[in-house]
Protein backbone atom coordinates (compact mmCIF):
# COMPACT_ATOMS: atom_id res chain seq x y z
CA UNK A 1 0.00 0.00 0.00
CA UNK A 2 1.45 3.33 -1.07
CA UNK A 3 0.88 6.46 0.97
CA UNK A 4 2.05 10.03 1.10
CA UNK A 5 4.62 10.27 3.87
CA UNK A 6 3.53 12.80 6.49
CA UNK A 7 4.07 12.56 10.24
CA UNK A 8 0.76 13.94 11.44
CA UNK A 9 -2.49 14.45 9.62
CA UNK A 10 -6.05 15.42 10.49
CA UNK A 11 -7.82 13.90 7.47
CA UNK A 12 -7.40 11.09 4.96
CA UNK A 13 -7.93 10.42 1.27
CA UNK A 14 -8.10 6.88 -0.11
CA UNK A 15 -7.64 6.78 -3.89
CA UNK A 16 -8.40 3.42 -5.59
CA UNK A 17 -6.70 2.63 -8.91
CA UNK A 18 -8.28 1.08 -12.01
CA UNK A 19 -8.28 -2.61 -12.98
CA UNK A 20 -4.92 -4.24 -13.61
CA UNK A 21 -2.93 -1.39 -12.11
CA UNK A 22 -1.33 -0.65 -8.72
CA UNK A 23 -1.26 2.13 -6.18
CA UNK A 24 2.21 3.12 -7.36
CA UNK A 25 1.04 3.41 -10.96
CA UNK A 26 -1.69 5.78 -9.81
CA UNK A 27 0.79 7.86 -7.81
CA UNK A 28 3.02 8.13 -10.88
CA UNK A 29 0.05 9.15 -13.04
CA UNK A 30 -0.99 11.89 -10.61
CA UNK A 31 2.58 13.19 -10.49
CA UNK A 32 2.85 13.14 -14.27
CA UNK A 33 -0.40 15.07 -14.78
CA UNK A 34 0.07 17.58 -11.97
CA UNK A 35 3.85 17.77 -12.01
CA UNK A 36 3.70 17.08 -8.26
CA UNK A 37 1.82 15.17 -5.58
CA UNK A 38 -1.56 16.33 -4.35
CA UNK A 39 -0.95 19.48 -2.31
CA UNK A 40 -2.31 18.37 1.06
CA UNK A 41 -0.12 19.17 4.06
CA UNK A 42 -2.72 17.91 6.54
CA UNK A 43 -4.24 15.01 4.56
CA UNK A 44 -2.77 11.54 4.39
CA UNK A 45 -3.24 10.23 0.83
CA UNK A 46 -3.39 6.45 0.59
CA UNK A 47 -3.03 4.62 -2.74
CA UNK A 48 -3.83 0.96 -2.04
CA UNK A 49 -3.16 -1.88 -4.47
CA UNK A 50 -5.90 -4.37 -5.33
CA UNK A 51 -5.46 -8.05 -4.48
CA UNK A 52 -4.36 -10.43 -7.21
CA UNK A 53 -7.34 -12.54 -8.27
CA UNK A 54 -8.85 -14.28 -11.26
CA UNK A 55 -10.55 -11.83 -13.62
CA UNK A 56 -13.26 -13.19 -15.91
CA UNK A 57 -12.96 -10.54 -18.69
CA UNK A 58 -9.32 -11.73 -19.08
CA UNK A 59 -10.49 -15.35 -19.33
CA UNK A 60 -9.65 -16.06 -15.72
CA UNK A 61 -6.10 -14.70 -15.77
CA UNK A 62 -4.78 -13.29 -12.53
CA UNK A 63 -5.00 -9.51 -12.31
CA UNK A 64 -4.87 -6.82 -9.65
CA UNK A 65 -8.58 -5.97 -9.53
CA UNK A 66 -10.95 -4.86 -6.78
CA UNK A 67 -13.64 -7.33 -7.85
CA UNK A 68 -14.44 -9.87 -10.53
CA UNK A 69 -17.19 -9.36 -13.08
CA UNK A 70 -18.54 -11.12 -16.13
CA UNK A 71 -18.16 -8.16 -18.46
CA UNK A 72 -17.73 -4.39 -18.56
CA UNK A 73 -21.40 -3.72 -19.24
CA UNK A 74 -23.81 -1.69 -17.12
CA UNK A 75 -26.57 -4.25 -17.73
CA UNK A 76 -24.45 -7.21 -16.61
CA UNK A 77 -25.53 -8.80 -13.31
CA UNK A 78 -22.92 -8.84 -10.55
CA UNK A 79 -23.36 -10.59 -7.24
CA UNK A 80 -22.33 -9.26 -3.86
CA UNK A 81 -19.86 -12.13 -3.54
CA UNK A 82 -17.84 -10.68 -6.41
CA UNK A 83 -17.05 -7.66 -4.22
CA UNK A 84 -15.71 -9.56 -1.21
CA UNK A 85 -11.98 -8.92 -1.61
CA UNK A 86 -12.44 -5.29 -2.52
CA UNK A 87 -14.76 -4.79 0.44
CA UNK A 88 -12.19 -6.31 2.79
CA UNK A 89 -9.48 -3.91 1.62
CA UNK A 90 -11.76 -0.87 1.79
CA UNK A 91 -13.03 -1.69 5.28
CA UNK A 92 -9.51 -2.36 6.56
CA UNK A 93 -8.29 0.97 5.19
CA UNK A 94 -11.16 2.89 6.76
CA UNK A 95 -10.68 1.14 10.08
CA UNK A 96 -6.93 1.85 10.00
CA UNK A 97 -7.58 5.58 9.65
CA UNK A 98 -10.25 5.58 12.37
CA UNK A 99 -7.95 3.65 14.71
CA UNK A 100 -5.32 6.33 14.18
CA UNK A 101 -7.70 9.09 15.22
CA UNK A 102 -9.29 10.17 11.93
CA UNK A 103 -13.11 10.38 12.21
CA UNK A 104 -15.26 9.14 9.34
CA UNK A 105 -16.32 12.68 8.46
CA UNK A 106 -12.68 13.52 7.79
CA UNK A 107 -12.18 10.72 5.23
CA UNK A 108 -12.80 10.93 1.47
CA UNK A 109 -12.69 7.95 -0.87
CA UNK A 110 -12.32 8.10 -4.63
CA UNK A 111 -11.14 6.12 -7.59
CA UNK A 112 -10.52 5.76 -11.27
CA UNK A 113 -12.63 3.35 -13.36
CA UNK A 114 -13.09 0.14 -11.31
CA UNK A 115 -11.58 1.97 -8.34
CA UNK A 116 -14.34 4.56 -8.62
CA UNK A 117 -16.94 1.81 -8.43
CA UNK A 118 -15.33 0.55 -5.22
CA UNK A 119 -15.38 4.10 -3.86
CA UNK A 120 -19.14 4.28 -4.53
CA UNK A 121 -19.66 0.98 -2.75
CA UNK A 122 -17.53 2.20 0.17
CA UNK A 123 -19.32 5.52 0.59
CA UNK A 124 -22.91 4.45 -0.04
CA UNK A 125 -23.05 0.83 1.09
CA UNK A 126 -20.21 -0.19 3.40
CA UNK A 127 -19.76 2.95 5.49
CA UNK A 128 -21.94 5.83 6.65
CA UNK A 129 -20.73 9.34 7.34
CA UNK A 130 -17.69 9.79 5.10
CA UNK A 131 -16.81 13.33 4.03
CA UNK A 132 -17.12 12.69 0.31
CA UNK A 133 -16.79 10.37 -2.66
CA UNK A 134 -15.33 11.04 -6.12
CA UNK A 135 -15.06 8.97 -9.28
CA UNK A 136 -13.38 9.29 -12.64
CA UNK A 137 -14.57 7.20 -15.61
CA UNK A 138 -16.69 4.94 -13.42
CA UNK A 139 -20.17 3.43 -13.22
CA UNK A 140 -22.35 1.10 -11.17
CA UNK A 141 -24.21 -1.90 -12.53
CA UNK A 142 -27.95 -1.30 -12.77
CA UNK A 143 -28.66 -3.97 -10.17
CA UNK A 144 -25.86 -2.82 -7.86
CA UNK A 145 -26.26 -3.47 -4.15
CA UNK A 146 -25.42 0.22 -3.67
CA UNK A 147 -28.84 1.21 -5.00
CA UNK A 148 -30.52 -1.41 -2.83
CA UNK A 149 -28.63 -0.15 0.21
CA UNK A 150 -29.68 3.46 -0.39
CA UNK A 151 -33.31 2.41 -0.79
CA UNK A 152 -33.38 0.27 2.36
CA UNK A 153 -31.25 2.27 4.81
CA UNK A 154 -32.21 5.54 6.50
CA UNK A 155 -29.37 7.80 5.48
CA UNK A 156 -29.39 11.45 6.53
CA UNK A 157 -27.65 14.44 4.97
CA UNK A 158 -25.00 14.06 7.66
CA UNK A 159 -24.26 10.44 6.74
CA UNK A 160 -24.66 10.66 2.94
CA UNK A 161 -21.39 11.87 1.39
CA UNK A 162 -21.33 14.49 -1.35
CA UNK A 163 -20.37 13.06 -4.74
CA UNK A 164 -18.16 14.31 -7.56
CA UNK A 165 -18.12 12.33 -10.83
CA UNK A 166 -15.95 13.02 -13.88
CA UNK A 167 -16.17 11.19 -17.20
CA UNK A 168 -14.53 11.50 -20.61
CA UNK A 169 -17.00 12.24 -23.39
CA UNK A 170 -14.99 10.05 -25.76
CA UNK A 171 -14.57 7.11 -23.37
CA UNK A 172 -15.08 3.93 -25.40
CA UNK A 173 -14.39 1.47 -22.58
CA UNK A 174 -16.90 2.94 -20.13
CA UNK A 175 -19.32 5.08 -22.16
CA UNK A 176 -20.13 8.42 -20.53
CA UNK A 177 -23.84 7.52 -20.69
CA UNK A 178 -23.16 4.82 -18.07
CA UNK A 179 -21.53 7.33 -15.75
CA UNK A 180 -24.36 9.82 -16.20
CA UNK A 181 -26.98 7.11 -15.61
CA UNK A 182 -25.21 6.13 -12.40
CA UNK A 183 -25.10 9.76 -11.29
CA UNK A 184 -28.79 10.27 -12.00
CA UNK A 185 -29.77 7.04 -10.25
CA UNK A 186 -27.82 8.03 -7.15
CA UNK A 187 -29.36 11.52 -7.20
CA UNK A 188 -32.86 10.01 -7.22
CA UNK A 189 -31.91 8.16 -4.05
CA UNK A 190 -30.78 11.30 -2.25
CA UNK A 191 -27.10 11.63 -3.16
CA UNK A 192 -26.11 15.24 -3.86
CA UNK A 193 -23.26 16.04 -6.18
CA UNK A 194 -22.19 16.75 -9.73
CA UNK A 195 -21.44 14.88 -12.94
CA UNK A 196 -18.81 16.60 -15.10
CA UNK A 197 -18.28 15.47 -18.73
CA UNK A 198 -14.75 16.02 -20.03
CA UNK A 199 -14.38 17.08 -23.67
CA UNK A 200 -11.93 15.24 -25.95
CA UNK A 201 -11.20 12.70 -23.21
CA UNK A 202 -10.95 8.92 -23.47
CA UNK A 203 -10.72 6.46 -20.55
CA UNK A 204 -7.99 8.42 -18.76
CA UNK A 205 -7.41 10.82 -15.91
CA UNK A 206 -7.00 14.47 -16.84
CA UNK A 207 -5.04 17.28 -15.22
CA UNK A 208 -8.08 19.57 -15.07
CA UNK A 209 -10.26 17.01 -13.29
CA UNK A 210 -7.49 16.23 -10.80
CA UNK A 211 -7.15 19.93 -10.01
CA UNK A 212 -10.91 20.20 -9.56
CA UNK A 213 -10.88 17.17 -7.26
CA UNK A 214 -7.97 18.63 -5.29
CA UNK A 215 -9.79 21.93 -4.67
CA UNK A 216 -13.03 20.13 -3.75
CA UNK A 217 -11.18 17.93 -1.26
CA UNK A 218 -9.68 21.02 0.39
CA UNK A 219 -13.16 22.50 0.84
CA UNK A 220 -14.46 19.25 2.35
CA UNK A 221 -11.38 18.60 4.50
CA UNK A 222 -9.96 21.97 5.55
CA UNK A 223 -7.07 22.14 8.00
CA UNK A 224 -8.16 22.02 11.64
Name its key features.
224 residues, two-stranded antiparallel ribbon, 9 strands
Structure explained in plain terms:
The model has no long low-confidence stretch (mean pLDDT 94). Helix 2 crosses helix 3 and helix 3 (114-126) runs parallel beside helix 4 (145-152). This protein is α/β, with parallel strands linked by helices and 224 residues long. The protein starts with a strand and ends with a helix. It has helices spanning 23-34, 84-99, 114-126, 145-152, 176-188, 207-220, and strands at 2-3, 11-16, 43-47, 52-55, 61-64, 107-112, 132-136, 162-168, 193-198.
- Report the span from N to C terminus: 26 Å
| Strands, count | 9
> Any idea what the shape is?
globular
Number of helices: 6
Which percent range describes the beta-strand content?
15-25%
The assigned structural class equals: alpha/beta
Mean pLDDT, to the nearest integer, reads 94
Secondary structure layout:
Layout lengths: L1 E2 L7 E6 L6 H12 L8 E5 L4 E4 L5 E4 L19 H16 L7 E6 L1 H13 L5 E5 L8 H8 L9 E7 L7 H13 L4 E6 L8 H14 L4
Parallel strand pairs: 2-3, 2-6, 6-7, 7-8, 8-9
Antiparallel strand pairs: 1-3, 4-5
Helix pairs in contact: 2-3, 3-4
How would you briefly describe this protein structure?
This protein is α/β, with parallel strands linked by helices. The chain contains six helices and nine strands.
Amino acid sequence: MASSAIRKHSASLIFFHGSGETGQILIDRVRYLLGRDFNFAHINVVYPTAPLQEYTPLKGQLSKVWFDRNAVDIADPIGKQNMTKGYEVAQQLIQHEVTHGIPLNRIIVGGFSMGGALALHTGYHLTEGLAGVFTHSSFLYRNSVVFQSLRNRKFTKETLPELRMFHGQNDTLVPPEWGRETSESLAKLGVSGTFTPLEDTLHVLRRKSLLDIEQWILTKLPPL
